[in-house]
Write a structure and sequence with these properties.
By secondary structure, this protein is of the alpha+beta class. 24% of the residues lie in helices and 22% in strands. 21% of the residues are buried. Bound molecules: guanosine-5'-monophosphate.
């Protein structure tokens, strides 16, 4: 059984992080340490620790994460200029919170995709 993270508490609104979006499958809220003018996390309500744990039955949820990202990018006014969607997986991917989340980052030019 995977261990819950802080994200489950945010999803259940047990801690005071404002939700930008929530439906029966996914939730979205701002990253606590934004790496760009717009930095939003879109997460499944259900705990899936890493992308390695995604199952076929999660495809609707994963698809919903993309459509919610698109809507939030438009609402944030960054859709036309552009943005980046990122999943980090495990240690080499730089994953810190083991409840999958898609980073929606934008608001300025982000530069090359990878840097060390
Ligand atoms: P990862 O490296 O796992 O892909 O990204 C985890 C992200 O979650 C980081 O960008 C980090 O700033 C963010 N984060 C960690 N703890 C919290 C929290 O308690 N609240 C919010 N809003 N974001 C968090």
């Amino acid at each position: 059984m995977a261990e819950e993270t802080i994200f489950s508490k945010i999803i259940r609104q047990e801690i005071a992080t404002p939700l930008l979006y929530q439906d029966e499958l996914v939730s979205a809220f701002r990253d606590i340490y934004p790496k760009a003018p717009c930095h939003i996390l879109i997460v499944p309500n259900k705990l899936i620790p890493t992308i390695n744990d995604v199952k076929e039955e999660d495809e609707l949820t994963l698809g919903r994460m993309i459509t919610v990202a698109k809507k939030l990018a438009a609402a944030e006014g960054i859709a036309e200029d552009g943005y980046r969607l990122i999943f980090n997986c495990n240690n080499d991917g730089g994953q810190e919170v083991y409840h999958i989340h898609m980073h929606l980052v934008g608001g300025h030019a982000l530069g090359p995709m990878l840097s060390k």
